[in-house]
Write a sequence for this structure.
């Protein structure tokens, strides 16, 4: 899916702020995994993130979109979030 810069920014702003980190650059997804703003769409970065449809069969409305660290987005199955990547301090780790 190709999103406009405006939609990407609005979805980014839905991520959880985690002080003392600058929310313009760093946020956490619903699984607590770190995401870096300029790593949008980057699957080669542990801080890369993507736009996820909360309800996969739902609309492209902002209310149905959220930011997810790319591996958490990739690991969704049957519309269920698994949270395999979580934060541990200032790092993302695989949940055991």
């Amino acid at each position: 899916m190709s999103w406009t810069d405006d939609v990407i920014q609005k979805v980014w702003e839905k991520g959880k702020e985690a002080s003392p980190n600058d929310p313009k650059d760093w946020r956490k997804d619903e699984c607590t995994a770190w995401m870096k703003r300029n790593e949008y769409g980057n699957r080669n970065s542990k801080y890369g993130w993507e736009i996820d449809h909360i309800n996969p069969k739902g609309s492209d409305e902002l209310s149905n979109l959220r930011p997810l660290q790319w591996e958490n987005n990739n690991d969704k199955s049957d519309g269920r979030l698994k949270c395999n990547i979580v934060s541990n301090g200032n790092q993302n780790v695989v949940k055991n």
Q: What stands out?
A: The mean pLDDT is 94. The helical segments are 5-12, 70-74. The two ends are 31 Å apart (CA to CA). The beta strands are 26-28, 34-36, 49-53, 65-69, 85-88, 91-94.
